[in-house]
Amino acid sequence: MPGTNDRQRKTNHFLLIESSEHLPARMMSHDENRRWNGDIFSPGQVFNLNTLFIFLDARAVADFNRLHERLALATAKEVYGKLASDGGSVKSCFHGYKSGRMPREIPMPSFPGVDFLEFDALLSDEEKLARKTARLFVDEKLLPIIVEHDREGKFPMQLVPEMAELGFFGASLKGYGCAEMSNVEYGLVTQELERGDSGLRSFVSVQSALVMYPIHAFGTDAQKQRWLPLLQRGQAIGCFGLTEPQFGSNPAGMLTRAVKKGDSYILDGEKMWITNGTIAHVAVIWAKGDDQKIRGFLVEKDTPGFKAWAIHGKQSLRASVTAGLAMTNCKIPAENLLPGVEGLRGPLSCLNQARYGIGWGAIGAAMACYDAALNYAKQRKQFENRPIASHQLVQEKLVWMITEITKAQFLALQVGRLKDQGRVHPSHISMLKMNNVWMAREIARMAREILGANGIVDDACVMRHMNNLESVYTYEGTHDIHKLVIGERITGIAAFV
Ligand code: TGC
Ligand code: FAD
Predict the structure, then answer these.
(1) Quick one: 293 exposed, middle or buried, by C-beta within 10 A (0-12, 13-18, 19+)?
(2) How many domains does the chain have?
(3) Are residues 443 and 368 in the same domain?
(4) Per-residue confidence at 111, pLDDT binned at 50, 70, 90?
(5) Given ligand 2 and candidates 475, 476, 484, which is best to mutate, with the most ligand atoms within 8 Å of its CB?
(6) Interatomic CA distance for residues 169 and 146, integer angstroms
(7) Residue 39 belongs to some domain of the structure
(8) Which residue, by CA, sits nearest to atom 15 of ligand 2?
(9) Candidate list 180, 342, 476, 488, residue with the active-site label
């Protein structure tokens, strides 16, 4: 086909279709593909008998509604169905992209996943596809650079456009260019991101659950039109200011004030430990009014009287930005109020979304540590040249790990299914966050033990995950606060005071 090579070089979006049977021989014919594909697809490139690359041109990419994976899968099935008249079936389809020339090898994910109890049998094709997309992104883009970023205490900002393109920001929200994933699909994405690093998952949680969600749920049309497309595309970054130096677990006591003066609000106060604080274009700030009611406000980064400063010296979440925010006589237009909610219910509703993603994310961190420990235990030899995996005490640790990961997966899936059906209660999400982060933190520590001295250096991922999980255990409601939330649900008695 004339110009094909040029087009393949310029066009870097592709569908990779894996079929359960061998592809029919005629699919290898360029003529056949050209006839069907018309001007949308370039000829399929068969890499082996079960896989086919189809490159997409710009129009096809647009048709895919900003890389919406579900649509990609449906289209792959349609393409394959038309080409394989003998009724072959699509096993999976990966919609990816590559810069530069066509890849010479199929980029198969290197991480196999952890599935002891046929968990995957409970997932739809779309759910597996969302996970595979995030898995490949983490394997190809994050893992090669995370150690350096963690060492230098730098967030990998260069990954933001790609995450936006893959639909990770505001993934489960409707409209405004969002991917409209189900909660389970979104959870599987956060699992994979945190398998890479909790800092990357934190970025996505804050952008999606703590900034886009409140604008989407409680904002005006003008606020939604202005901010949501920018945030979805990663062209604006957001942060969420609830915690204060004196008020962490008990945000109801906050000191930050918002006083209405004419058609403005004047904000005064301080927020602490704010993820993305110094890189955010917009901060969702929770403040009390004269009536003592908590409300949310959008504060833009260059507003006079607003200052963000980086917190240094962190031994945890080093590849994430954490900041303090100060507002001194900070005047914002009255239209920056989020009018749709009053009271602590506002920020806590956002936290439900973020805690849910963390519950899945922790499984990813645990899987990474388990995988590292299992592989190491099979290779490392001690005493009569036998692998340490042959010792009962080591096996006991590995068995504990996979049992807890398996339980955590089913807990996450059930909470996700309830959330998708609109039947989830905040205490369900508390159980998910509490259990799964605890489980991951224990597993990281155990994995470090199995790796012995090699576990303390950062080319093994376990100590990085272990340190990160200390923050995850504390933020978004500490482990013990979630115990008290569940305690209140089952006894009817609040025991916070
Ligand atoms: P309480 O009297 O129980 O409730 C006050 C109002 O809030 C409502 N509510 C909720 N609404 C939605 N979702 C929930 N989960 C809710 N829990 C309570 C409640 O119905 C009531 O509504 P209304 O309309 O009747 O007024 O509140 P409380 O003051 O006793 O506090 C309860 C407690 C302790 C559970 C709460 O304060 C809490 O969750 N504290 C933990 C604070 C926390 O999680 N902070 C997180 C900061 S953000 C963060 O860490 C981001 S990290 C990001 C990253 O990098 O990933
Ligand atoms: P405290 O509330 O002082 O708690 C200290 C200890 O006391 C904990 O063990 C706690 O469980 C225990 N405790 C407190 N009250 C009780 C009680 N009633 N009963 C029993 N035990 C109790 N906040 C934001 O608003 N936005 C962000 O983006 C954000 N990002 C963060 C990023 C990182 C890396 C970290 C570490 C924190 C972040 N936070 C953020 C803040 C986080 O939400 C708070 O740290 C958390 O809510 C706990 O508050 P605290 O640290 O003040 O601990």
Answers:
(1) middle
(2) 4
(3) yes
(4) confident
(5) 475
(6) 20
(7) yes
(8) 249
(9) 476
Q: Which of 237, 273, 437, 468 to mutate to test the pocket of ligand 2 (most atoms within 8 A of CB)?
A: 273
Are 220 and 335 in contact by the 8 Å Cβ rule? The answer is: yes
Q: Is 270 a catalytic residue?
A: no
Residue listed under structure tokens 């504990």: 400
Residues 267 and 136 occupy one common structural domain: no
Strands 386-387 and 381-382, sheet pairing: antiparallel
Any ligand 2 atom below 6 A from CB of 206: yes
Residue type, 413: L
Q: Same domain for 103 and 180?
A: no
- Number of Cβ within a 10 Å radius of residue 35: 9
Q: Where are the beta strands (DSSP E) in 304-434?
A: 306-310, 322-333, 381-382, 386-387
* Residue 449, in any domain of the structure: yes
pLDDT tens, position by position, 244-303: 999 999 999 999 999 999 999 999 999 999 999 999 999 999 999 999 999 999 999 999
Domain range enclosing 476: 347-491
Same domain, yes or no, for 70 and 26?
Answer: yes
pLDDT digits (tens, 9 = 90+) for 357-401: 999 999 999 999 999 999 999 999 999 999 999 999 999 999 999
Please report, for the domain that includes residue 483, its CATH number. Answer: 1.20.140.10
Q: Residue 435 C-alpha to ligand 1 middle, in angstroms?
A: 18
Q: Are residues 318 and 429 in the same domain?
A: no
Is any atom of ligand 2 closer than 6 Å to the C-beta of 275? yes
